[in-house]
Amino acid sequence: MSRRRGGGLLVAGTTSDAGKSVVTAGICRWLVRQGVKVAPFKGQNMSLNSFVTREGAEIGRAQAMQAQAARVEPTALMNPVLLKPGSDRSSQVVLMGKPVGELSARGYHGGRQEALLGTVVECLEELRGTYEAVICEGAGSPAEINLRRTDIVNMGIARAARLPVLVVGDIDRGGVFASFFGTTALLSAEDQALVAGYIVNKFRGDVSLLEPGIEMLRGLTGRHTYGILPYAHGLGIDEEDGLRVSLRGAVRESVVAPPVGEDILRVAVCAVPLMSNFTDVDALAAEPGVVVRFVDRAEELVDADLVIVPGTRGTVGALEWLRERGLAEALKRRAAEGRPVLGICGGFQVLGEHIEDEVESRAGSVEGLGLLPVRIRFAVGKTLARPVGEALGERVEGYEIHHGVAEVLGGDPFISDGDGHSLDGCRAGAVWGTHWHGSLESDGFRRAFLREVARAAGRRFVPAPDTSFGALREEQLDRLGDLVEEHADTDALLRLIESGAPSGLPFIAPGAP
User: Which of the residues 28, 136, 270, 345 is marked catalytic?
Assistant: First the structure.
C-alpha cells in the first residue's frame, strides 16, 4: 500500500451482530502489522458497553478495542455519537464524548441525527488527515431503508466521504447469499455504486462447497467476495451489547484441565435490565478455574462462590427487578452468611442504603438493599474519569461512567490512594462495591480479590500466578488479524482501501433477476 494519507473503507453488515466489529478490528490489526498507520471509526454507536478515553471522553467500548487492534490511543474522534438506551423509546445522546441530553427515537431520527452528519464527517476527515487508513464500522444494516434519509453511520457517511463498502454476512445464521443480494438490491443506484463486495463470516466446513454460490453471487451482482472467514471460538471481544462473556471459550478449555488449585470458583452475574459494561467480568472469565455465568433467578445464586451485580443504565429499575425476581432477598441472605457479593457502578449503587434520583429515573427517594453503608445522589453532570489507585495491596486501574455520587458512611475503604485515603467504594464484610469499571483487568488486584473470595467461600482455589489479561487480549486481536491475513483477499483489500470502489459496478434493481 502506498503511503498516501486518508485511505478508507466502511465495513457494513447484512444484520446486527454479523461480525462488523470483529472484522473491523481484524483489518486494523492486519494493516498495522503491515506498517500502515490505521485508525478505527464509527460515526454513531448504540451501546451500553462504553469506555473512557484518556481525555475523559465516553465512546463505545468496541471502538476502544479496535483502537487497541490498531495500536493507537482511542479518542472521541473515533466515535463522535454514542447512544445509550435508557428504555425502548429513548436514549442518552453522547456527543464527542460528553452527554448532551435524552432524546426519543422519533425525536432523534426526526431531525437531530441528520444535523449530526456534519460533525461525523468532520471527525472522519480529521482522522483521514492524520492516518494512512481509517477503517469504519457501520451499524445494523445499510438496507434499513426506513432510516436512510437520516443515516449517518452506513451509506450516509459512505456517500459523504466517498468510502468503498464491504458487506459482512454471518453464514452461520443461514441465508447469507440472499442477504448479500437483498441488501445490495434495496440500495439506491448511488449507494450501490459504493458497495464493492462481500465478506462471508463464521463459515464452517470445506470452502470448496461454497465456491459455486460465490460465483453465482458475482454473476448476479458483479461484485467480488473479499474473504471467507472461518468460524472461530472466543473472538467476540468487547461487543456492543449482549450477554456473552468475550473470553468464555478460553475459560471452558482451562476448566477441562485441572485448575491451579483444587477447586474451581463459580461466579454468577445478575443479568439486570439495561446492563452496561458486561465486559467487566471478562477478566474473571479469563482466569483458569473460574466459571462465569449470567443469571436471572434466585436459585441460581445458591451454588455461586461470588455474585456480581453489574453496571446498569437504570439503577432504580434494576433494583426493582432484583426485588421482583427474589434476587434482592437472595443477596441479603448471602451477605448475612458472609458469602461474597460485588457491586460495580450501578450494581454498587443498588447495594447501598438509599438512592436519591431526580436525574436518571426521576423516582426521587428510593431505599436500596442496605448491604453497604452508602447513600447515592444522582447528579446532572456525569463523572467520566480514568483513575488509578490501590486495593488489597495491589495497583488497580479503572474507568468511571456514572451520574450517581456516593457518600460512604462506614465500612472499610475498598480502593485507596496508597496512603490510606479512600478513592472509591467500600467493603462491609464479604460485600464489596465500586464505581470503577475495568478494575478486574488489573492482574495483581484480580488475583488478590479472587483469593479473598475463595477464602470467604471456603474454596481451595488458587489464582493462576501468570495470567495476564492484557496479553490474552493481544493474542485475541492477533487472531483476528490472522483471520484477515489468511482468509481474505488482502491484495484486493489494499487496493480497495487506497483507491475506493471499482468503477462501473452494475446496478441491481429490486426484484431482479
Answer: 345
